[in-house]
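Let us work through a complete example step by step.
Step 1: write down the sequence.
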Amino acid sequence: MNILTKWLRSYVPNFEVNDRQLADDLTLRGIAVEGVHDLGAGNGHLFEMDITTNRVDAMNHYGIAREAATIYNLALAPLDASLPGVASGAKPFSVVIEEPELCGRFTARVLRGVTIAPSTGLVAKYFALIGSKPIFNAVDASNFVLQGMGHPTHAFDLDKIEGGIVVRLARKGERLKLLDGTERTLEADDLVVADHARALGLAGVMGGWDSMITAETKNILVEAAWFDPASVRRSSRRHGLHTDASHRFERGADFSACATANALVAKLILESGGVAEGELVDIVVPAIAARTADRPAIALSVDEVQRHLGTTLDDRSGRSGLTGELVHQYLIALGCALTPDKDGFAVKLPSWRLDLEREIDLVEEVARVYGYNRFANTLPTAMPVIAHPLATAEAAVRTRLLALGYSEAISSSFASETDGETFGAKSRGVIALENPLSEEARLLRPSLTPGMITMLAHNLNRDVREVRLFEQGTVFAGSAEAVVESPSLSLGLTGELPATRVHSAKDAGVFELKGVIESLFSLFAASQDALSTSAAERLTFSADSPRWIEPGRGATVMLDGLPIGRFGELTASEREARKLRQAVYLAEIDLEALYSLPLRRATARELSRFQAVERDFSFTFADSVEWKTIADAVRALAIAELARIAPVEVFRDAKANTVPAGHYALLLRCVFQSQERTLREEELTDWSAKVIATLTALGGTIRS
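Step 2: predict the structure and record it as tokens.
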């Protein structure tokens, strides 16, 4: 935004600091001046300002003047809102607020016999210097007050208003033609300023065409109100309208400024003729006033100010340069009301500073005005570092996944409603945002999977054909009143994966994810004893899978019979909807259950000096016989010298020539080894016989 130093100085009498020094001092206090332009002799300079979104109070000349007065300990001139005279009215103008949560205050003043003419005097002069286009006095007055003291106002042609003003929600499908000439179709949650017949304007955003001021206007209704930031933001974004008014209302306008802004606009209009009729109509919603202008005082300790801010360059003889007197001076100048108490002050916050909420905010204000450049360069006192209780487990999971060839990625914490329905668990609930950034970010993410799909698509769209990613993050469930956060892990895999002797190329992605999950669980102990067996031995896999996984191409991960994750191939319909040109494999694991187990303690044993012996067994099994059943049965033989077992090859014959339909051929390898001696042939023969008998008991048939 642009600020005229000539206009600014009109609010601060006896201001002797030159404009360039003022620009530097404001910038050091967080009110950034990005550019200084000379406007010629007697006209001062034009400041290009960069005002942060939390400082809506500084988005005007009077707000910047308040900052300057605070910095230099000067008096700030009060705004003169007195009217030249008020004629008695028959009765107050009718104003009804039907939505008190969305409109906390509404002021209205009737002006009669006005003259619509070009603006003159200071309005015309300042507009010419700042580059604003004048229209005519009634409209220019509203814009002048907005730039001068910061509160949005609006002027209606009184004779075009039927009955009185009603602040209400729009009716779904209601039409409204705005001042920019466009006709909008309203939704049921759009707040409008209406009369008894129709909507007159989109509240806090833009006025309507049907009640606008024209050259024929003789009577005017001046309005200044306070509208709910979320309501204004919602309507502004829905209709693609970002106006000077909505910019301020969205960030929290000054609740107490309505009457003053209304009077200032009326005063400027009446300079060209006319009279104010009746007293100001001022409707206030007490509950909103309590949340804005009448917030409870904050206790501020001077000792806390000095403790937080530390040594200053003005310290003398152990006495801080930031005295109680300076704290009092700064906060009073910023608009606070201070009441001394035993430790410092009870600080009543100004209505225009909604960004101030806690004691530390006031400490920051004192530091800002005092000047950050006036503090000594000292290091903070070293404090002990307490590791997060899950840091070690997270690091172990991260290290294992990196070792397996996966790269860590971070996705957005938000999700669309469609993704929430597809990937979220309805029983856990989803958290809708009150003020979403976009339609694609209406929810706090209930799952990491949508973000993982987006990241895989980002790579595929840039011709990266083989991708392995993982993300450790938080997912959200519950309700807006009771948000439940829990750690989760997402895995994503895509690419042309080679076939193995056990799995076909088509199945390789699914089984790679299964192997990764088992590898991760092997890091953790099966019980609270860190030396116990791997938690992977407590895993089972159910054929049930969520709807976003292709049927028969994934599974649910079970720990002790309870579901803690799912993995598999993304459905073709989801893939097509997201324009993914190749198969994508995904997994998501609930880490809360995993992290409840301790990490396994690494142990080492001496390698055997004796030769290992391999024995292969070729069997045919029905499809109903799972590998886990086979492995558990062989291990149950309790052969101490059985070092490991593994499936070497799995084979199915589509034509059923060598392997019957509904069966598969398995080549099982058993490795025997002793730590103490060389194995004898008769021992190996005996153990082989036991393995064969066990496999036969499971329904297996030895292949010839």
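Step 3: interpret the result. The first strand starts at residue 2 and ends at 4.
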